[in-house]
Amino acid sequence: MELLLVEDESSVISLIQRGLKYEDFQITVAMDGLSGLKIASSKKFDLIILDVMLPNMNGLDVCRQIRKFDTDVPILILTALDQTEDVVEAFNRDADDYMTKPFILEELKARIHRQLRKVSNNNSTQHLIQLDDLILDRASKSVSRNGKAIILTATEFRLLEYMMVNRNKVISRMDILEAVWEMDVSMNTNVVDVYVNYLRKKIDKNFENKLIHTVIGMGYVMRNEN
User: Fold this and answer.
1) Which of 37-46, 85-94, 169-178, 185-194 has the lowest mean pLDDT?
2) pLDDT of residue 86
3) 146: region left, alpha or beta (phi > 0 left; psi from -120 to 50 alpha)
4) 121 confidence band (pLDDT: 50, 70, 90)
5) Which terminus, N or C, of the chain has the lesser number of Cβ atoms within 10 Å?
6) What was the pLDDT predicted at 79?
7) What share of the chain is helix, strand, coil (3-state, %, to 5)?
């Protein structure tokens, strides 16, 4: 498995290299953002770990640039920044996971393997998911409602996919955090509410029949109330 690590702290690089030594990973290291972007564009990686505070180019900018030519590679943000706005911004740049420093190596390995399993499991036989006139196509990563295309970010797509798979079920914010972001549920963040509001603006705003509903004190449910 090919892993790209874009990190400028030698101690962190050494820790990850030692920790993944027996995990069958071939690790390529870049110590600044521009180098990381150049390497990512030169070959296909199975997973990319990105620091945020990097020389020459910010890691979130690197993430956005990578998404222009590779929409599938899992990108894990590893950073000391832990405010809600930092987390939201990372997912706005289409990162797949977010982990703060200092970190526990075993958790990092678990997150890496979970992302790799998700890539493998994406080859699902059920490509189309439909609720009323809303259709999500897993194969083409597209969404439409009443025949009109809806443009979503990668994170918005994952959230909508999870909610549609679990349609008619009340799902808690903790469930969503674990399933969509694989985040530590003890983190004090409103990232779920922020992204549900993003979806509402794109999925429900211009339609009389609302599909995304809040269940006070419990979470959210996606259903056709008509």
Assistant:
1) 185-194
2) 82
3) left
4) low
5) C
6) 86
7) 40, 20, 40
Q: Are 106 and 210 in contact (CB under 8 A)?
A: no
**Residue 2 burial class via C-beta count within 10 angstroms: exposed 0-12, middle 13-18, buried 19 and up:** middle
- Within 8 A by CB and 6+ apart from 91, the residues are 98, 153, 155, 181, 191, 195
Tokens of 169: 């079920």
pLDDT of residue 204: 95
Instruction: Give the pair of three-digit tokens for residue 127.
Output: 């490509």
The number of CA neighbours under 13 Å toward the Cβ of 214 is 8
pTM of the predicted structure, to 2 decimals: 0.61
Radius of gyration, CA atoms only, the chain: 18
Q: Which residues pair with 90 in a beta bridge?
A: none
Rounded Cα gap, residues 220 and 129, in angstroms = 18
